[in-house]
């Protein structure tokens, strides 16, 4: 993926990061009088001008409700919304548009699976298997449905590198395991899980698989048919699109069997007081007026990604991470939390004697934006016996110079607390 030149890791494949940066208006602003260094992409990535323009165009010239109206604006809005669904389908290589449900994001998608698929199916003594690395969005919905059904939540361990070993997960797949739910990439540590093997092992045992792809879909390249998972969830705001929009891929056979999770307009064919007939897929899971402008923006974000050399972009992100580990690792008292052999573009760390929140506050004064806290992954923090970490997460628009500014700002913070 990369080669080393002195202390600097550079991608082997040419990637014009400055040209890419010009597509993102917010990267030109300053914070506290200093040029912005935005390294909180794991929480929300920024949007290119094409996404902003697409949302503005929709709101300025096409805004109307979808699927219901015969007037021109409604027909235009519907076409834009369904075009976004088709772009998503192609991006993850789903077999059919019926397998793409548009929702608010990963959290809503996992809750939908828990309540619409798992709750009617689970029985007392059944098991839902997750890993210790999960985001709260892939823990709490399963705790809730286990409490509702009498099923048991089983947690596969992580090691001191922050890795999940396939053998450890497979050892917990028993005759009562009904669901395996795991992240593709850990949001707290950047660990890339062995999802290909885990999905294959689960399927061979008749276990339904749910993959939280929020941190992976814009960075790893996702083909849901090649992966073979039953469900795959992701969020638009982590892939250069707007907030409040995301998608659930679900295998059509399973979605057909699942009852609607919410009732209301647009998810019905006919309603009477004696009963209701639901709409066909994916409509039966999309009650009410959706985030139409968000879907348009997500479609534009995917079009932007489709226009790029994503292999070169991913190589660049990997080189950024390696350079960050080199430069941060040279700071006295700094410890990287999570040293998995397969990692995405993210570095989580602590500094002796300095609380992560203080690091984040001082870095902000330097114009450097990172995330500090438990990252909605408290069990991970408990495992490593830390209250929180500082997390720098990278996108293809970040530069090696920004990593150097990050390291300099962290060193400045450390010296302030000597």
Task: Give a short overview.
This protein is α/β, with parallel strands linked by helices and 418 residues long.
Attribute tags:
418 residues; seven-stranded mixed beta sheet; 14 helices; alpha/beta; disordered N terminus; Aspartate Aminotransferase, domain 2; Aspartate Aminotransferase, domain 1; four-stranded antiparallel beta sheet
Q: How many helices does DSSP assign?
A: 14
Biggest sheet overview: 7 strands, mixed
Percent of residues in beta strands: 15-25%
Which class do the helix and strand fractions yield?
alpha/beta
Q: Provide mean pLDDT, rounded.
A: 95
- Computed Rg: 22 Å
- What global shape is seen? globular
**What's the CATH superfamily of the largest domain, by name?**
Type I PLP-dependent aspartate aminotransferase-like (Major domain)
Please give the domain count: 2
Low-confidence stretches: 1-12
Task: Give the CATH class of the largest domain.
Answer: Alpha Beta
Question: What does this protein look like?
Answer:
This protein is of the alpha/beta class and 418 residues long. It has 2 domains: 2-48 and 309-416, Aspartate Aminotransferase, domain 1 (Alpha-Beta Complex), CATH 3.90.1150; 63-306, 3-Layer(aba) Sandwich (Aspartate Aminotransferase, domain 2). The protein has helices at residues 17-21, 49-62, 72-92, 106-121, 140-149, 166-171, 195-204, 224-227, 252-257, 292-306, 310-329, 356-365, 378-383, 400-416; strands spanning 2-5, 8-11, 30-31, 34-35, 37-38, 100-103, 127-131, 152-156, 177-183, 208-212, 231-235, 246-250, 268-272, 275-278, 334-336, 346-351, 368-369, 371-373, 389-393. It has a 7-stranded mixed sheet, sandwiched between helices. A 4-stranded antiparallel sheet has the order 15-16-19-18, covered by helices on one side. The two termini are 38 Å apart.
